[in-house]
Write a structure and sequence with these properties.
single chain; 10 strands; alpha+beta; 3-stranded antiparallel beta sheet; 23 helices; 5-stranded antiparallel beta sheet
């Protein structure tokens, strides 16, 4: 066996001192040590016996190597990478994470960048160990180097969970206010995703989204407006608070278009609550009807307003015609002016609203009443909830038993068992009053297995410079609301793809669990691919959308791609 011989050679290099002929900065032949560690990494991958043989040696190298010189840091980095790739002991992996944490304090920017990249790879498998260095990672957000701050942002977002969401969001929002323009979109998107997933309360969630909209409204995702309006609509107890906050924010700045759209919608829906002025959760201020109408007219006339924003504003004015106690002549005058607008969509709305005033005024109040709340007792929602617990149990049964450091990770990923659904439904007994023919049909049906479902076609969702990502799908017969997605990444180029990380997100109504990938390196020329399994529960059978983030190194460059997959086969969610 080669492994014991390699272990013996490396132990000799580490323990017997060094010769001046081969030493560099006091480290005995670091080039040979690095090559041996790389070979051990290959031999120990997915091999329990070889990994156990080298565990003690790796711990010895990690604790005895001098870190004051770059040669020692190079050996330590290879040691950490080897520990990460083999089946190492839990304590050894914690030691590797701590070494990377010390690298974050190094003055050399290259070493800090390598540490952040390595921790980003480890955060999925050793979340609790990486979590101990959260404060150091957050400090790296203030780096002037763009590549360092980007890596620190990605790692900070990956560290957010339900226990630290308030503190981490405060740090990330502070960073959002001063971050470079090329990072603002990623930061805003990450904050919104984390807030949607780990929000401790609806009010906190609304405040967080409002802060992002006021700070970087032009950089948020396209669905941020729809998500916030739905969130406010569901929180009936926060309607007065939300409309007052949004009115104040809009009065200060009408240039942020997503903020203006949400504010116009909210003022149109709950303008009567704005005028009442009895909200205890905000600073008291009095708003007059004329001020509200003037603000919406200003939004309509602003050259910064997009056509969609003007549509929100004119609809808000129309809805206020049934919520305000004063005369509607000013609103009718504004609406009639836009009946000849050059924008076709806005013109059509204004014409229809004019007809509503002139011919169907008796129906105006009923047509423009408040949007109904989302009914959580919908039969489809209840039916999906009954299968939720069974789906979670299937996920747990299919997943391998996690090691101790992974426990926090699984708790952070999903809380699949929080649904208080009833016991699993049983087959109804045969009705004795049924006819013999019906009973025969039941008897004939019992021994027959259900027909296998038609295969779901696979989908290629990414292709760049020889790197392809394909998604294949399978739905278990036992749990129709569960979808198993296998992401397969291949490389047909002439250069290896290294440090590959695939992250995924789904809408809030879904539940997803990411399994650890099969590796992080894709050899060139159609070498072995990387596979990763996503388990997605869709209790409401809603339309499935995936948002993917890929980071990797290729042709000597760091690549990051963020994209949304909204063309999944219908069979994946129906």
């Amino acid at each position: 066996m080669v492994v014991p011989q390699l272990v013996h050679i490396l132990r000799t290099l580490v323990t017997t001192g060094y010769s001046t002929e081969h030493s560099i900065s006091g480290v005995s032949d670091p080039f040979l040590q690095v090559q041996i560690l790389r070979l051990l990494r290959i031999l120990g991958r997915n091999h329990e016996e070889s990994s156990e043989t080298m565990n003690d040696l790796l711990a010895q190298v990690a604790t005895n190597t001098d870190t004051s010189r770059n040669a020692g840091n190079a050996v330590l980095l290879e040691t950490v990478l080897t520990i990460m790739d083999i089946n190492s002991a839990a304590g050894l992996r914690v030691l590797a994470v701590n070494i990377l944490g010390r690298f974050l304090l190094n003055k050399d920017k290259n070493i800090r960048y390598v540490a952040l990249t390595s921790l980003l790879r480890l955060v999925q498998s050793d979340h609790s160990a990486v979590q101990r260095h959260r404060s150091t990672v957050v400090e790296c957000l203030r780096e002037t180097d763009a590549s360092l701050s980007r890596r620190a942002l990605e790692l900070s977002l990956a560290l957010v969970n339900s226990s630290n969401v308030r503190a981490m969001m405060q740090e990330l929002q502070t960073f959002l206010e001063s971050c470079p323009p090329d990072l603002r979109a990623d930061c805003a998107s990450g904050i919104l995703l984390a807030a949607e997933r780990f929000a401790p309360s609806k009010r906190w969630h609304i405040d967080t989204i409002l802060h992002v909209l006021t700070t970087a409204g032009t950089h948020v995702r396209d669905d941020a407006v729809a998500n916030l309006t739905q969130l406010i609509g569901e929180a009936q107890e926060l309607h007065a608070y939300s409309v007052r906050r949004l009115y104040s924010a809009l009065a200060e700045d009408i240039s942020q278009q997503p903020l203006a759209q949400v504010a116009a919608w909210c003022i149109g829906e709950y303008g009567d609550l704005l005028l009442e002025g009895n909200c205890e959760e905000t600073e008291p201020f009095q708003v007059e009807e004329e001020e509200v109408l003037a603000l919406l007219e200003k939004l309509l006339q602003s050259h910064m307003s997009l056509p969609a924003t003007r549509g929100y504003a004119i609809t808000a004015l129309m809805k206020l015609s049934t919520r305000l106690r004063g005369d509607n002549r000013r609103i009718r005058q504004v609406v009639s002016i836009y009946g000849s607008c050059v924008d076709i969509e806005l013109q059509q709305r204004a014409v229809e609203y004019n007809v509503l005033f002139q011919k169907y005024d008796h129906m105006r109040a009923a047509i423009l009443e408040k949007m109904p709340l989302v009914d959580r007792s919908d039969p489809q929602v209840d039916e999906g909830g009954k299968q939720n617990k069974a789906g979670a149990q299937l996920l747990e049964a299919a997943a391998p038993a996690p090691t101790e450091p992974q426990a926090d990770k699984l708790l952070d990923l999903l809380d699949l068992l929080d649904d208080t659904s009833g016991p699993a439904q049983r087959l109804p007994p045969l009705d004795p009053s049924s006819s013999p023919g019906e009973a025969l049909v039941h008897l004939l049906d019992l021994p027959c297995a259900p027909p296998p479902p038609a295969p779901i076609p696979s989908l290629r969702v990414f292709e760049r410079e020889g790197v392809q990502l394909d998604l294949s799908f399978m739905r278990p017969l036992e749990i129709p609301t569960l979808l198993l997605v296998t992401a397969t990444t291949t490389n047909s180029s002439r250069e290896d793809v290294t440090h590959f990380v695939c992250q995924a997100a789904v809408p809030k109504s879904f539940q997803m669990q990411l399994q650890a990938p099969s590796g992080d390196t894709i050899p060139a020329q159609a070498g072995p691919p990387i596979t990763q399994l996503f388990r997605i529960l869709n209790p409401n059978k809603a339309t499935l959308r995936l948002k993917l983030r890929l980071t990797y190194n290729h042709f000597g460059k760091a690549v990051q791609e963020v994209f949304e997959v909204d063309n999944l086969p219908v069979e994946t969610w129906q």
